[in-house]
Amino acid sequence: MNANKFFRNCAGHFRAVWRIAFYLVLTIGIYSLVNLFTASLLFQVEELSDYTLLVNRFIERIILFICVLIPGLILLKWFDKRPLRLLGLGLDKKAVTDLLFGMIISIVIMVISALVLSLFGLARFTYNGLSEVTLLYLLFSLIVMFIMAAYEEVLFRGYAFQALIEGSNIWIALVIYSLLFGAAHLSNEGVTVFDILVTIVGGAFLGIIYYKTRSLWMCIGAHFIWNWMYGVFFGFYLPAYLKRSVFTYHSLNSGMKLNSDEIHSIILNVLCIIAMVIIWKSSWIRPTQKNRKLWSKYS
């Protein structure tokens, strides 16, 4: 094998392994550089208020989003010689439609799962009320969740994931990145095996959405509303940086070997798999004509 074949495939494109390796090196390099200044941007008081906790999370995720976005754009533009639109963040009417549709999918899944728990006596939800202060807090948490989801989607369904699809196939890329997505959530406080299984299945679900649309907008919409509905709306789990929710979730005795949290995880997995199959089979969920035309140039 000569040097050219070692770096490039039969179509003349850089092999996926090199594209992913360069992406990781660039990302780590940019993050290491930016991280030197991150601490100075965060609130450092001993006891942080509700809003300062959210602001800190917002700043952290904005920085991480930039660190994973810039390498992908650099490599697309100067390494692959491809249009930046191919990363999946093109700004057009379809972007808004995809974002909204992704949000609707997650709202439906979360509402159905909560209804099943309530109807079968597996959980109870108490309404916490909505004051003006609480409403503003919930709206700000939406913005934070959006940035967090955008960061994770660019990292897990962005340049590296797309390169792996081209270098192997969608199924190999889905398995690898769904497992990585699950592993990335192992550090979450109080995480269980059932939670990780939901994350892995959710990673596959989001990967299918990207592949069907060749856009990250529907993925971002589904991801950030899932997190918001799960924590801030229904109160299933509130991480340390969130202090308020619309409802408080009360786990009840299921009378079975599994508790209501574990049953809820199973329900979410089933609903995700159903949604995945529907999206995969739907002929009307597809890339825009412009995206199809662009992607057809690259084997």
Describe this structure in words.
- The protein is mainly α and 299 residues long.
- The protein has one domain.
- It has helices at residues 3-7, 16-38, 50-79, 93-119, 132-157, 159-167, 170-184, 193-213, 217-233, 260-281, 289-295; strands spanning 123-127, 247-251.
- Strands 1-2 form a two-stranded antiparallel ribbon.
- Helix 4 runs parallel beside helix 9.
- The longest helix has 30 residues, at 50-79.
- It starts with a helix and ends with a helix.
Summarize this structure as a short list of keywords or feature phrases.
299 residues, 2 strands
In short:
The chain is mostly helical. It has helices at 3-7, 16-38, 50-79, 93-119, 132-157, 159-167, 170-184, 193-213, 217-233, 260-281, 289-295, and strands at residues 123-127, 247-251.
**What structural class do you assign from the helix and strand content?**
mainly alpha
Task: Return residue spans where pLDDT drops below 50 for at least 5 consecutive residues.
Answer: none
Counted beta strands:
2
How are the strands ordered across the major sheet? 1-2
Biggest beta sheet attributes = 2 strands, antiparallel
Q: How many domain regions?
A: 1
What's the overall average pLDDT, rounded?
88
Silhouette:
globular
User: What share of residues is helical?
Assistant: 55-70%
Mind telling me the C-alpha Rg? 20 Å
Rounded to the nearest angstrom, the distance between the terminal CA atoms is 21 Å
State the assembly state of the protein chains. Answer: single chain
How much strand content do the residues show?
Answer: under 5%
Order of helices and strands: HHHHEHHHHHEHH
Helical region count? 11
